[in-house]
């Protein structure tokens, strides 16, 4: 099958640091290539992929030091290039937010599939989708699709990862046993809750996280004063090579979100190392965390403190086994292949009917 994947241009594929969407695109594209499909990735030139790379910008937007850049113009240029080359592909798989590509491909929605990787409860998304209701959509969790139930959903496909890139540590370090916070230091991710949990349990907390431009004031005013460098330590933003030690040595990942998380990739990254997750009952986390098996889903700081006290009841080998069964890249890719095949059959059937 000839498949085009169209990635956001904010990060490279895979991202050099933070970036769950681009990481999943990388895993999916490489697995499709391994299976023998003809795959083209539309992304920035600093991406690294086993697919054919259609570079539409010299580098990803976030790490581009130029002070004047336009994300909108960059994505429009990419979409025009995809439209120009659309005849080369059986399926066009879009990973863009806010339906930016719909007007470009309204004459061929049946040849596309869209995986929105973000939240869908923005006020303007429902009326926008009603203008282009034929576009097939795949949600990354059942929770994600609730604000847009009327969309043309053709599946829900949980994320998956290669089983061999993250593995449990053979031996944990002498520094092991802390609580870990990984992701973004934003108000929605609630690092202040993680700090409170650490203080109330008496455990150390290590935070490895990105501080975005929009989050700097929140970090400076709310989080930074709580970091003492001893019980609460901020490590900065880490890359892939550092995750094994960071997550593998943790007693648990604390995921105290305060927003409708569409999936929560960091949760399954922790599980890959056998590390359980203590997550808030928000968004997709109840779908991702098996209660009392791979971690605990909680509703308050009190609940989280009690959950941390029960971490010793969980089997880290079983956490890893559940990860392998539920969140492998091969399972994710097989799920997408079934969607592609179904859409391709429908497209060919429509073309045959028009020809006759």
The major beta sheet can be summarized as: 6 strands, parallel
Q: Order of strands side by side in the largest beta sheet?
A: 10-9-8-11-12-13
* Assembly category: single chain
The mean pLDDT is 95
Distance between the termini: 25 Å
Total number of domains:
2
Name of the CATH homologous superfamily of the largest domain: Glycogen Phosphorylase B
Structural class of the helices, strands and pairings?
alpha/beta
- Predict the CATH topology of the largest domain: Rossmann fold
Q: Please provide the ordered H/E string of secondary-structure elements.
A: EHEEHEEHEEEHEHEHEHEHEHHH
Measured as a percent range, the helix fraction is 25-40%
Record field, number of beta strands:
13
CATH architecture of the largest domain: 3-Layer(aba) Sandwich
CATH class bucket of the largest domain: Alpha Beta
Helical segment tally? Answer: 11
Q: Extract low-pLDDT stretches.
A: none
Beta-strand fraction estimate = 15-25%
Radius of gyration: 21 Å
What would the principal axes of the Cα set say about the shape? globular
GO molecular function: glycosyltransferase activity
Organism: Pseudaminobacter soli
Domain Glycosyl transferase family: 177-315
Domain Glycosyltransferase subfamily 4-like N-terminal: 18-129
Describe the structure.
It holds the Pfam family Glyco_transf_4. Residues 18-129 form the Glycosyltransferase subfamily 4-like N-terminal domain. InterPro entries: Glyco_trans_1, Glyco_trans_4-like_N, Glycosyltransferase_grp1. The longest helix has 27 residues, at 329-355. The mean pLDDT is 95. Helix 4 packs across helix 9 (301-309). A six-stranded parallel β-sheet has the order 10-9-8-11-12-13, sandwiched between helices. It has a five-stranded parallel β-sheet with strand order 3-2-1-4-5, with helices on both faces. The chain is of the alpha/beta class and 356 residues long. The protein folds into two domains: 2-161 and 328-355, Rossmann fold (3-Layer(aba) Sandwich), CATH 3.40.50; 178-326, Glycogen Phosphorylase B (Rossmann fold, 3-Layer(aba) Sandwich), CATH 3.40.50.2000. The chain has helices at 20-34, 71-84, 125-131, 191-201, 216-223, 243-248, 265-272, 285-288, 301-309, 316-326, 329-355; strands at 2-6, 38-44, 52-57, 91-94, 112-114, 136-139, 152-156, 178-184, 205-210, 232-236, 250-255, 277-280, 295-298. It is 34% helix and 19% strand.
